[in-house]
Every structure is written in structure tokens, then in C-alpha cells.
Amino acid sequence: MRIARVRGTVVSTYKEPSLQGVKFLVLQYMDEAGQPMADHEVAADMVGAGVDEWVLVSRGSQARHVRDCGDRPVDAAVIAIIDTVTIENRSVYRK
Amino acid sequence: MRIARVRGTVVSTYKEPSLQGVKFLVLQYMDEAGQPMADHEVAADMVGAGVDEWVLVSRGSQARHVRDCGDRPVDAAVIAIIDTVTIENRSVYRK
Amino acid sequence: MRIARVRGTVVSTYKEPSLQGVKFLVLQYMDEAGQPMADHEVAADMVGAGVDEWVLVSRGSQARHVRDCGDRPVDAAVIAIIDTVTIENRSVYRK
Amino acid sequence: MRIARVRGTVVSTYKEPSLQGVKFLVLQYMDEAGQPMADHEVAADMVGAGVDEWVLVSRGSQARHVRDCGDRPVDAAVIAIIDTVTIENRSVYRK
Amino acid sequence: MRIARVRGTVVSTYKEPSLQGVKFLVLQYMDEAGQPMADHEVAADMVGAGVDEWVLVSRGSQARHVRDCGDRPVDAAVIAIIDTVTIENRSVYRK
Fold first, then answer.
1. ipTM value for the complex
2. Where would you tag: which of A51, D3, D8, D50 has the fewest CB atoms within 10 A of its CB?
């Protein structure tokens, strides 16, 4: 999984029928020092994450095991809202 | 998923039989500021996207859940035409 | 999928039994301007592509949907020989 | 698989229900000379690895074959605690 | 697939039970000119490759089609020992 921060949203009217009702979040990956990285991801949100929250993102076909993602062509999903990230006993992030 | 802009097309006569009728789009990935990135992708188009439109691309085996992609050797598919991308309440793209 | 040019071949006598009869091509990825990129791939060839031809490569588990690849440990396959690549009405490649 | 060193943990209260009880480790990838690399990963820990230990990480849908990971949306798992890494008869790491 | 050279081994006592008996090789990826690249991989060896031999590596869930890898959490496997690599009629490697 990767650590990411929620930055915004993508809205689409015309899409695969199975994607009706799926919320798409724009995520920015964070490095382990808590700094934003250059690359980003758009992920299906099933846990109700909000802008600026840190989340865990799961990618690839395993994303299908998120509730209701099974038969959808979704290759990334937010699977958890992060409370804390601790690196060698140092707190990098606290919600 | 990744955000990309439709740039062009790839045409092939001699191909896997299961790919008959599949339209291949050349996509350029966009960063979250709306700037084009260096890498690109060729994806199966099942939603009728046109040149210059922004789309969502799903990659890997989950692309098989796009209508009619099930048994085809397609590792990337356009799954939605984007209406808007919003980053921290700022509009990055509007169709 | 990615656009690549066929550069050469890999020959192996001692291999997984299921790979008997599979031809391995060395491919060089091309950028959308038609310039060669640094990274390369070795892919199973099921369409009979020859050196210098441009092809479409599908990677990951979807490569299994290429004829006869189903139960083989192949993570990349040539799925089409490209006739033309067109970027914003400009021809980048013509066979 | 990739070689990584355990750096810390991620804690989450609000997550996919199937993730209850899964421990998330922050891992830093190591190069073959034993030096830390820039990229990191968050992986499910099923083998009880501790901070500073070197581990093997398996990514993608194969991670599901780790005990109890089958139906969870986990795209990376610690599959082994490393005893030794030997490169051309030179010991790079010894636990 | 990728071309790699066998550099060494990883030994682990404490690991997923399904990994008993699997030999892990440290591989260094090679570019098409036969020069070593920066990134490496740890792969399950099912073909008996030795140090300094060039091999083909298959990654992702397709690695499961290697004999005896089916239910193991292995995301990379050595599938062939390379005899020759030929690029545009020039021999890059000969065993």
C-alpha cells in the first residue's frame, strides 16, 4: 500500500455503467518523512475520506476486495483513513 | 486510476483475433496541476472519448471489468470521460 | 498497452516446460514522438512480428488472454502489429 | 520480491472491515549494496517482523496467498524475515 | 519479462509456511546493451540458475504458472536460463 493525502475530486457523468455512485478522489503520495511526492493517483473512495486526510491506497486487482468494488474496473481504492504514522519511534503524522 | 488526455489513435490490422473492433487511444498522463507528463499509455476505448478530452484510465487486470473487455488481452482501458478535476477547491479542469 | 519496436530475440533451451515453442522478442519502448525510450521488455510473440516493426505490448496477467498463453508464466505479450500511430492529426508512424 | 527494512507502523481505526487485526508496517526498500532507497511501501505483516529487521515483500495480487490475506484488499505483504543476503560470495546483510 | 543476471541469494528461516523449499535469487536487471541497471529483484528460482547466469524473470500474478508456485505468495520467478540475446543481428550475450 502507499500513504497518500487526499487533495481533491474527479467528477464524471459519462462513464462505465458499473461506476455509478463511486466517488473518485485525487490523492498525492507522501514520502516517509511526510513530504508530498511528485506522483499522484485517482482512487475509488469507499471509506468516506475527506480533503487533507491521510489514507492508505491499495492498487491493482486486490482493490476489488474493497466492498462493492468486485466487478468494477477500479485499479486503486482508499482502504483506510490513517490515524498515525510512526517511523523509528518518531511521529510523522497524527490525525 | 490516472488522469490522461486523449492525444491520438493506434491502428492495427494484424492483431489478436479478440481485439477486432477495439479502438486504441494514445493517452498522455497529466499531473495534478493539469500539465502533461512524460509518460503515455495506449488504452482500449469503450466510452467513445475524443481527442483532447480528459479521461480516467484503469490499468492491470481490473481493466477486464470494462464492458466487453473480459477475455481480451487489454491491460489499460478508458473507463470515464472527466467533467471536472478539483484540487483543494481550485478547478484544474472543466470540460 | 505500450508502443514498442522489435529489436531482437532471446533464445533459451532450459526453461519452464510450458514455454516450449514460445518466441521471445526484445522490445524497445517508444515515446509518443516516435523516439526510443530507455526501458525495454521481453515479450512473448504470438502474432509473428519481425525486427523493426512497431507493436502493441500488453503486460500483466491480462497477457494470458493471448492465444495459448493461458497457463504460461508470461507477463508480457505482443498483441498487435501497428499500422499507424497518429497524434493530433500528425502521423508519427506508418508501417 | 523486494528487499526492505522495517521502519515503522501505520495505525488506522476507520478502515475496510476486512482489515481488522492486520498490522501495517512502513518499509524502506534497500538496494543490493545494502543502502536505503528513496521509495517505500506499506505492507501487511503476517510474520511478526520488528523495526530494523530486513524482510522480503511480495506485491500485487500474489500477496493474497499469504495466510489470511485472501479476501482482503492488500497489495503488499511481508512474506519472510531475512537471515542473510549474499551477493557474489560477499555478505551484504546478516541478521 | 525482463533480462537479469543472477547476483546472489537470500536466505530466510522464518517465513510463510508455503515458501519452504523455495530458493530466492537476487537478480540485477540488464539493459539491452548488456549493461547492469540500477534496480534489482528477488525471484523464486524453479529452473536451477546459478550466479552470473542470465535469466528471464516473469513478474506479477503470472509467476504463479511456474511449476509449484501456484498457491505461494511469490510475485517474481525465474522462468528460463538464457542462451543468447541478439539485438539487430548483433550478439549481446552468449552463455
1. 0.90
2. D50
Measured distance CA(B79)–CA(B57) in Å, rounded:
6
Q: What's the pTM?
A: 0.91
Report how far residue C66's alpha carbon sits from residue C76's, in angstroms, rounded to the nearest whole number: 10
pLDDT band at E63 (very low <50, low <70, confident <90, very high): low
Report pLDDT digits (tens) over B74-83.
899 999 999 9
Q: In this structure, what CATH number is given to the domain that contains residue A12?
A: 2.40.50.220
Instruction: Work out the minimum CA distance from B15 to partner chain A, whole angstroms.
Output: 24
Q: How far apart are the first and last CA of chain B?
A: 19
The confidence score (pLDDT) of residue C64 equals 61
Q: What is the mean pLDDT of chain D?
A: 88
State which H helix or E strand residue E38 sits in.
strand E36-45
Q: Rounded CA gap, A50 and E29, in Å?
A: 41
Nearest CA in chain C to B43: C1
Long-range contacts, E19-26 (Cβ 8 Å, 24+): E19/D79, E19/D80, E19/E72, E19/E73, E19/E74, E22/E72, E22/E74, E24/D1, E24/D56, E24/D80, E25/E49, E25/E78, E26/D3, E26/D32, E26/D85, E26/D86, E26/D87
Cell numbers for D5: 527494512
| Burial tier of A95 (Cβ tally within 10 Å: 0-12, 13-18, 19+) | middle
Which residues of chain B from 25 to 64 reach within 8 Å of chain C, CB to CB?
Answer: 26, 28, 38, 40-43, 51, 59-61, 63-64
Confidence of residue C65 (pLDDT cuts 50, 70, 90): low
Q: Which of C6, C32, C78 to mutate to test the interface with B (most CBs of B within 10 A)?
A: C32
C1 to B24: CB separation less than 8 angstroms, yes or no: yes
Q: Report the distance separating Cα C87 and Cα B5, nearest Å.
A: 12
Which pLDDT value is given to residue E68? 59
Range of the domain at E40: 2-94
End-to-end CA distance of chain D: 19
Give the number of domains in chain C: 1
Q: Model confidence over C45-56: pLDDT tens digits?
A: 988 999 999 999
